[in-house]
Amino acid sequence: MLKQKQNIGVKKVLVELKHEFSDNFEGAVSLFYPFICFVCDNDLPVGVKNVCPTCQSNFQRTYFEKMGEDNPAKKIFWGRIEVENVFCLLTYSEDNSTKIILNRIKYKKAQRLGVFMGELLGKLMKENHDYEDIEAVIPIPLHEKKEYIRGYNQSLTICNGVSNTTNLPVYDVLRRRRHHESQTTKNRFERSDNVKDIFDVKKGKKMPYQHIAIVDDVLTTGSTVESAYLALKHYFPEIKISVLTIAIAR
To answer: Reduced to 3 states, what is the DSSP secondary structure of residue 136?
Structure first.
């Protein structure tokens, strides 16, 4: 039993190394061995990257964007802020592939996966007329200390993917005023207090757009998005704001 557990542990380490190596040396890696799926860790078919067709077909799509004013994600903000539209691609739960995807993007240095999911989000957003007048995407910023440790901002990575399939510019206009504790274990009210007044607009930045979309990885209570929204509205009260995320916690 001990030997079996050790073998499983070694296999997990090798899989993570392969993921990280393929992210850093994508071109060279593809010449010698296939990419592996970020969800199931199996080899990908030739010409396929990031997520295998089987795992993609099993994505837990929300389809909230087709519900208009009955969109459950938009209802999160009722009585708080006036967002134009909210597009959440997938449903997040403790036992589905969305959790694996977000974990790899945030904590396993899977920037390539973040771009891929952003591209999918942008492609589907482009097919919906409710989002056609969005002019730019704005990432939720990380504190510079956390970004230094992680090596990148996952929201910016997702923005880059959205931009790839929509040609929308990425407008990095927000800054984080202070570091805050992780939101993971906090309830709705604690999350709200934790990110209150945490964002500001970068000094000297203008707003050349009329309708922008705030982009983040996951929507939970909406507290982070609300704080970013209020910071933008404080400086640019006339702009319209939508929200795009890879997932929504249900």
So the answer is: strand
Residues 6+ apart with CB under 8 A from 99: 92, 93
Q: With respect to CATH, is domain 59-249 assigned 3.40.1410.10?
A: no
Q: What is the pLDDT of residues 78-127, one digit of tens each?
A: 999 999 999 999 999 999 999 999 999 999 999 999 999 999 999 999 99
Task: State the pLDDT confidence band at 46, using cuts at 50, 70 and 90.
Answer: confident
Q: What pTM was estimated for this model as a whole? A: 0.84
Residue type, 13: V
Task: Give the integer Cα–Cα distance in Å for 137 and 172.
Answer: 8
| Helix axes 188-195 and 223-235, enclosed angle (nearest 10) | 30
Alpha-carbon dihedral sign for residues 215, 176, 221, 232: negative
For residues 24 and 21, give the distance between their C-alpha atoms in angstroms, rounded to a whole number: 5
3-state SS, residue 186: coil
DSSP state of 108: S
| Residue ranges of domains in the chain | 59-249
